[in-house]
Amino acid sequence: MPDASSKESPQNGYEIIIQPSRGWLRINWRELWEYRDLLRILVRRDFLAKYKQTVLGPLWFVIQPLLTALVMSIAFNRIGGVDTGRIPDIIFNLCALLPWSYFSQNVTTGAATFTANSHLFGKVYFPRLVVPAAASISNMFALALQFIVFVAFYLYYAFSGADIHMGASVLLIIPLMLLTGILSLGVSLLIAASTAKYRDLSHLTPVLLQLWMFASPVFYPMAKMEHHPSFSWLCWANPMAPIVEATRDILLSGGAWATPQMPQMLVTSALTAILALIFGVAAFNRAERTVVDSV
Amino acid sequence: MKPVVEVQNLSKLFHLGSIGATSLRETFERIMGRNTSKATHDDNRVSAARRGPYPNTFWGLKDVSFSAMPGEIVGIVGRNGAGKSTLLKILSRITEPTSGRAILRGRLASLLEVGTGFHPELTGRENIFLNGAILGMKRWEIAAKFDEIVEFSEVGQFLDTPVKRYSSGMFVRLAFAVAAHLEPEILFIDEVLAVGDAGFQKKCLGKMGDVANRQGRTVFFVSHNMSAIRALCREAILIENGTVAFSGTPSDVISRYLAATVPDDASEGGDLDWRHHAEQPGNSEMRIQRIRTLDPTGRPQTTFEAADSIDVEITYRILAPLRDLRFRIQLTTHEGELAFQATDHTFQRELHEPGLYRTTCRIPGGLLNRRMYVLGVQADLAGVRYIMHMTEFINFLVSGAGNQSSHFPEAWPGVLCPKMSWTTAELPDAAV
């Protein structure tokens, strides 16, 4: 056991050097691994704390997207007249909200990392990256709950004769959600790092998320965006656009891509996500070194 | 044997004015070349010794070097704002130094506060694991020590109650219990011992001494409580103006510290006058502006006649309404023995509205012995929380004829020497 050796002999190689750091991307993987218990326990805390504070408990993770799907179906599809094709609008929206709620939850909690934990960060050291990482894992539980609700609605619509079906491709949902996780972690780290320096930016986060949602095909099919004369570039520029559409293709159309270019779009999205994560981690690392001096 | 902690020329530069998050507007103004009027104003707040190389900067720490061997308990003393917390924060890796470096050979834990990360909604049991993990313990380590922690904390029967329902005493006991069972090679402690009731404090002090003596761990202990420093530490460091002013045995360091407690701009001994808001002891609710020790004629003094009374005068500003504020003053001898503590609890008003106040305590003549005393002052809301922990401010000498009712100044034992009343009568033989 490596732990035991470092415990028994302080002189035995365990050495921490504190000095001004150089380089813009240095992650201490070994240290992150040392703190895996903290990660696990923070995930548990996030979930327990959220659940204990409310009467309805974890039901909120379900009610929120359900209400959103309902309201948006009325506003966009019934009143606004956006056509969802052969797919009933509620399940159409509910399905797209799976990746989107996960994404926006991650960004919201991750972006507030420094401000929400300033007290903790000012008193004790641990790799700060553990906190947003734990948040995106604990948000996965909400995603799973939401998925169960989706399945219930899916069964209801499938049995009442709607033209929706899943196939073996349903397994693709796992890499797709991982992609969403990576992208949202990257984005939230970038925002967290900039709000550490400019507190005002925290007011911008909800607005940014709302704009981003409307720029993603959550309540309308991507075809509308793709064939729009001045907004088709968003399919490529917005990494969430293909994720949302692909989730629908997988869960409601048996994996048949509505857009022939979907694979290329997904690859672009994945590359963007990785870039966002790299820059996010670098910016976050930079900010965490001295953030307690200013927050 | 190599030192466990080696600190080499550690420095930290702070930016004035940007303490507190910058706003976009400030950055904008800086780029546009406005915001310059503020610079000159801010620079006046900083003494020349600590002024940084650029406008609006100051040295929180400058060229600090020291080292410590395994098993040592090192006391760190210094005035508020001297740089103790900055040093601790750098060594705890909460913030980075600007230059220099420190080598820590071993696992490190710092207790800048007890109960960091406790979540009110979670139970005592859950919080033990959470807090332990935040402090860097492995799950199996916590599990192995779980029973010990529970026993130490004395909250066993409330283990499955959310800590938001704990009394503050229970909360603190549980928090310290977790911290006390950390097994790092290096431990930094900041004033956390000033928690809990006297019995529990004693238990904590005992635990700390144990950690260093028996287990060979190195402890750094920051405190304003000179008696605790004296009792626990074998080495001490005095931090002044961001540098190590002196290091040596606790008694030497404490003498230097107390001699230097007079702020830069005080004109006489026995008069501590903090002009700069940032240096005033206290918190966001109350700031102490001035503490004086006065002789019967009202002059600040540090030497008193044993027969004369001493007025301890505290001038302070209340910044937020405070209920049940009380002061406690304490005299200890230079050797660290407690002479007495006294409080104005029953003399104070129930509610303090914001404003400037002055509280005076008269120590009667004919009470103290002829020796050096150290005056400590503490402010708290009775039974609720501390405003300012017991902090030692002024040392003064009681001399003169003394109270042993003899004009011959012979050495007299005891922390006090009260003037008593005695009677002697010659009795007729028949009475016996």
Mean pLDDT of chain B: 81
Distance, first to last CA of chain B:
73 Å
Shape of chain A: globular
Full CATH superfamily name of the domain at 271-399 in chain B: abc- transporter (atp binding component) like domain
Radius of gyration of chain A: 21 Å
Structure summary:
Chain A is mainly alpha-helical and 295 residues long. Chain A is 69% helix and 1% strand.
Produce the secondary structure layout.
The complex is a heterodimer of chains A (295) and B (432).
Chain A: H1 2-8, E1 16-18, H2 29-34, H3 36-52, H4 60-79, H5 89-111, H6 113-116, H7 118-123, H8 130-159, H9 173-197, H10 204-214, H11 222-226, H12 234-237, H13 240-252, H14 262-294
Helix pairs in contact in A: 3-8, 4-5, 5-8, 5-9, 5-10, 5-13, 8-9, 9-13, 9-14, 13-14
Chain B: E1 5-15, H1 24-31, H2 37-43, E2 57-68, E3 73-77, H3 84-91, E4 99-104, E5 108-111, H4 124-134, H5 139-153, H6 168-180, E6 186-190, H7 198-215, E7 218-222, H8 226-232, E8 235-240, E9 243-248, H9 250-259, E10 271-273, E11 286-294, E12 303-305, E13 310-318, E14 322-323, E15 325-333, E16 338-343, E17 351-352, E18 355-363, E19 372-381, E20 385-399
Parallel strand pairs in B: 3-7, 3-8, 5-6, 6-7, 12-20
Antiparallel strand pairs in B: 1-2, 1-4, 8-9, 10-11, 11-13, 13-18, 14-17, 15-16, 15-19, 19-20
Helix pairs in contact in B: 4-5, 4-6, 5-6
